Amino acid sequence: MFDYVKENAYVILTEAAESMGISLSERQIDLLVTYVRELLFWNQKMSLVSLKGPQDIMKHLIDSLTPVPLINDAHAHLVDIGTGAGLPGIPLKIQMGSIHVTLIESSRKKTSFLKHAIRTLGIEDIAVVNSRAQAAARENQYRGTGDVVISRAAFDLSRLLVLGAPFLSDGGVLIAMKGQRAGDELARAEDTLHKTGLVLTGFHETRLPVTGEIRTLLCFTKKRA
To answer: How far apart (Å, rounded) are the C-alpha atoms in residues 214 and 212?
Structure first.
């Protein structure tokens, strides 16, 4: 599977990025390929990502890059809760080099992979926190620090709103990465949304390059005090 990635990554990722209105340098693609190499190796030992075929790993990368146009602050502090194998946090950090990223993951095995991957990639200003999201949100060093809080399909939307809201700074944005039925989740989360004090400020539907699958990015903003 890695041979497929190595041989096709430059063309697939370059074309996919262009279709999404973003850019990837050769070095950034090299870093993404290195990340995939480590992910595939560790995935043989533990369940990091679901892979049914070689194109799936490219889909994970491309999907992880879809929020880039929505992150306007080049120096934003991004908190990725329930990051798992580092998706979308690590690809976003690679593409947006100046952002600061905090990856929050409750699985000790997965956080071991994340720390290894970061060392291997040699990227800075990215931290790994081995904790459940609700526990980390109670700590002063994380609470209210996120200019952007993000999660890629790790939680039901109602749960994500409750877990993500405490991490947001005033004016911060929570981005929920969802599939084609995001509208249904949003309807079910209406009461929870009201209780958290967040406001829906964006509903962005996009078709993934390569696979053609529909993705929806829901943006919720925390009102300034």
So the answer is: 7
